[in-house]
């Protein structure tokens, strides 16, 4: 990492140096006058900048990267808002590490992007239950201000307050970009995005990452032919509020159509996630659910609604609950030539890309600001 001298200090040193040199030109002070000492102080500060930059003009990004030992990427710190459930948050962090290594060619510990995982499960209520009991099905079609008012209701069981607190923790730890590792939690995205922005954090939407991943998959299958038919494995809350439908329709009009399992198969989806004691099913294996840590039977149960989506003509199946990719993956769909989107991975890929872009922008801005003072070295 390039050592940083605060640009305000550099600017101050440059200004002091210029003033001192101007004063010296008006008179002939003693050889070791205070003014000479002042000039030397300015010279030392600006020379330090030159040493850090290896004698290169600071606006040259490639020179900066070469100075740190190779063209390895820097990343802004990423905040992972986890705990929904805890296994999904941990899996997101694992996927992020894999993305750094395999998509950004990171080869050392020091070159990885920094991230902070906030897993505050006890303080974040169940999103699906709250949405079912307290939010209207047409929430996504209402005005933004009205949505935010509903989503920030002060009642204690509103998950918004725990998620807001988790964002505060990530911001306090230095995160500049953040993700929420729960699909259903994105029902609260508008309110959480506004809060994150007030803390200097850019919050990313999981549906945007899915759109990018689906388009990438279509490119690899001979091109994009819209609309792409997406089969969605998600919670009742995500389905009933039209979370994906509304986001994709507004940002990517006419590109995607979404189908969900019928009532019987959706019950199996929920049983797989939350356990069959909470969501009884007919003719399927009993399980404590992915959230209960029972993966084998949960996987067998989840494959049933997944198959109905494929049989219904889905070109892509999304694990639009972040627990889903914990039990099924692309191999389950290869024989059908159907793309499976792991929403945890697509979200973390978007986060890494955004973090890289933010770091590059910051580095260039720093270089340009230092560049304004670099010419002072020529007169020192």
Automatic annotation (TrEMBL):
Gene3D superfamilies: 3.40.50.1860. Pfam families: Asp_Glu_race. Keywords: Isomerase. InterPro entries: Asp/Glu/hydantoin_racemase, Asp/Glu_race. Transmembrane segments: none annotated. This is Aspartate/glutamate racemase family protein.
């Amino acid at each position: 990492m390039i050592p940083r001298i605060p640009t305000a200090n550099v600017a101050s040193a440059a200004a002091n140096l210029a003033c001192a040199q101007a004063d010296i030109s008006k008179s002939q002070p003693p050889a070791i006058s205070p003014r000479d000492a002042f000039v030397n102080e300015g010279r030392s500060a600006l020379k330090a900048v030159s040493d850090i930059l290896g004698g290169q003009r600071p606006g040259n990004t490639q020179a900066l990267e070469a100075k740190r030992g190779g063209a390895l990427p820097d990343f802004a710190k990423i905040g992972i808002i986890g705990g929904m459930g805890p296994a999904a948050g941990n899996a997101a962090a694992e996927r992020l590490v894999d993305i750094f290594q395999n998509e950004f060619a990171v080869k050392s510990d020091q070159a990885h992007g920094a991230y902070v995982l906030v897993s505050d499960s006890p303080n974040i209520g169940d999103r699906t239950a709250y949405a079912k009991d307290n939010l209207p099905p047409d929430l996504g079609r209402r005005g933004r201000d009205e949505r935010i008012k509903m989503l920030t209701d002060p009642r204690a069981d509103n998950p918004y307050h725990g998620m807001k607190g988790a964002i505060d923790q990530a911001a306090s730890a230095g995160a500049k970009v953040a993700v929420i590792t729960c699909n259903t939690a994105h029902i609260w995205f508008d309110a959480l995005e506004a809060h994150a922005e007030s803390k200097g954090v850019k919050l990313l939407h999981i549906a945007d990452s899915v759109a990018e991943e689906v388009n990438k998959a279509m490119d690899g299958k001979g091109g994009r032919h819209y609309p792409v038919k997406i089969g969605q494995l998600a919670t009742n809350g995500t389905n009933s509020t039209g979370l994906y439908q509304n986001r994709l329709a507004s940002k990517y009009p006419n590109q995607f159509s979404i189908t969900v399992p019928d009532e019987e198969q959706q019950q199996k989806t929920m049983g797989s996630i939350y356990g069959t004691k909470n969501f009884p099913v007919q003719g399927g294996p009993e399980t404590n659910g992915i959230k209960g840590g029972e993966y084998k039977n949960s996987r067998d149960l989840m494959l049933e609604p997944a198959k109905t989506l494929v049989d219904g003509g889905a070109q892509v199946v999304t694990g639009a609950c972040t627990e889903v990719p914990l039990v099924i993956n692309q191999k389950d769909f290869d024989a059908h030539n159907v793309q499976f989107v792991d929403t945890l991975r697509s979200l973390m890929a978007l986060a890494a890309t955004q973090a890289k872009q933010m770091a590059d922008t910051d580095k260039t801005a720093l270089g340009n600001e230092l560049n304004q003072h670099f010419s002072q070295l020529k007169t020192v």
